[in-house]
Write a structure and sequence with these properties.
Blueprint lengths: L8 H17 L9 H9 L11 H10 L13 H5 L45 H8 L3 H4 L9 H4 L1 E2 L4 H5 L5 H17 L11 E11 L2 E10 L3 E6 L4 E5 L7 E4 L4 E5 L4 E5 L5 H14 L1 H14 L13 H21 L1
Antiparallel strand pairs: 1-2, 2-3, 2-8, 3-4, 4-5, 6-7, 7-8
Helix pairs in contact: 1-3
């Protein structure tokens, strides 16, 4: 279309490929800072697949997003497109009789994304707003801002720990020594060690946690135990902990978005570093290793009525408590002089 070629079914196939790419990756295949650069990228077929893009879907999209309309999968024979492994299991003959999937509730938005609500969906057509939406540009992509001046290796890290160091089923002196060294380093160098009850941090990083209409950036700390703490990085205050249970599960929505389902609530989480899959894998692995302990703790918490209760609502504020302690001697000195 950009080159003035005839418009026909191959254009629809191209659109299908672009839609599949965006549905899986969460972003359009072609993105640029303005319309001119966007059109140049399309004409040069300048796009790339994210590292975790499924192979079958990658093959499907790659065969559709082709500059030559006649070479696109399905061109001249729609059956070739329908026979691709991407559509494995689809009953094309009876598809019109099948019950459509249930419409899911609105997907909460992160700080820089629009709320995915059918009532708020844009009108069809290719206007200026639609182009901006398709380019999928955001302030985060234009230039990430530094949240804190702390070592990024400490704040966005995944500690490479052998499985026996997490569960410790046997007394392994080498594993225990390695764990102790990591823990000592953590105590000295990681300012968030204060909040993890002296447990070794398995994974940590900034996550945008959605609650209600707002998202707030928190430092999430996945530790031995298991525990999943989250801290306000601005006030250095422990805000809460995700409760573990046998029925707890993770759900990856795209490279940035993932959910943690618990019996009492769903945690809507957005990783600005696009490591949603890594977070879910780490949580699932820790849950599997501590399965017996989680089940025991969950049953006890249910009996006591304490499951899911946020015991950190009145948690200590690191900087606030520190200032308070520093001010106490000054107040006592002032009181002495008045006497």
């Amino acid at each position: 279309m950009l080159r003035g070629d005839d418009v026909g079914p191959p254009c629809d196939y191209w659109a299908l490929g672009a839609m599949v790419f965006q549905m899986i990756s969460g972003q359009a295949p072609f993105r640029a800072i303005n319309d001119f650069h966007l059109m140049n990228k399309i004409q040069k077929l300048d796009f790339s697949f994210p590292a975790d893009f499924p192979e079958v879907a990658k093959d499907f999209v790659a065969k559709i997003l082709v500059l030559d309309p006649a070479a696109r999968l399905g061109s001249g024979n729609i059956e070739r497109l329908k026979a691709h492994p991407f559509f494995e299991g689809v009953d094309w003959k009876n598809i019109v009789k099948m019950k459509p999937p249930d419409i899911l509730p609105p997907l909460p938005a992160s700080l820089e994304e629009a709320e995915m609500n059918p009532e708020n969906m844009p009108e069809p057509g290719l206007d200026e707003k639609a182009l901006n939406r398709l380019m999928n540009l955001s302030l985060m992509e234009m230039g990430p801002s530094k949240q804190l001046s702390l070592d990024s290796e400490i704040l966005n890290s995944a500690v490479d720990i052998p499985s026996d160091m997490i569960e410790l089923p046997k007394v392994d002196k080498k594993a225990l020594a390695a764990r102790q060294r990591k823990l000592e380093k953590q105590r000295k160098e990681n300012p968030y060690h204060l909040f993890v009850q002296d447990n070794l941090i398995i994974r940590s990083g900034f996550i945008d946690k959605k609650k209600g209409l707002f998202s707030r950036r928190r430092m999430f700390l996945l530790t031995e135990g298991p525990h999943l703490f989250y801290v306000d990085p601005n006030t250095m205050e422990l805000k809460g902990e995700v409760p573990w249970s046998p029925c707890m599960r993770t759900e990856v929505k795209n490279f940035r978005t993932f959910f943690v389902h618990t019996p009492k609530r769903i945690y809507y989480l957005f990783d600005p570093e696009s490591r949603a899959l890594e977070w879910c894998k780490a949580i699932d692995q820790l849950k599997a290793r501590y399965a017996d302990k989680i089940a025991e703790s969950y049953e006890k918490a249910v009996r006591d009525g304490t499951f899911g209760v946020n015991k950190f609502k009145k948690s200590s504020n690191y900087f606030g408590d520190k200032r308070k302690k520093e001010e106490e001697p000054a107040k006592s000195e002032e009181g002495g002089s008045q006497r």
